[in-house]
Membrane protein FxsA (Virgibacillus phasianinus), 128 residues
Amino acid sequence: MRWLIIALLIIPALEIGIFVWAGGIIGPWWIVFLIMLTGFVGVFIAKRQGVETWNRARLSMNSGHVPAEEIIDGICIFVGAVFLFTPGFITDTVGFLLVLPFTRNPFKNLLRAFIKHRMNNATIIYRK
């Protein structure tokens, strides 16, 4: 919980610093344009990836399998879309890493290990 409070204080300060620094180099209107561009492109990619993941989950459920991989993909895409929706270059970078399928795998492995760790410590109870 402490790391979340620290992140909520540090990340916006870093974003503002990057805005000021980059705005001094390329101009403030270009920064506004880049923020809007990354937001629109990011939401478009997130929507496309989300629909594709939803369709894969439906196919998996129709064939009688649990869509575990698709659920983890969906979590990553959702979190990435939230990061892409917030203005800032750091959050946009993390958002694109979570939304794009070829860069999502390391995050999926971390999420899978986190869930497995929580289940082994009896923090998450899973019953069939």
The radius of gyration is 18 Å. Residues 2-120 form one domain.
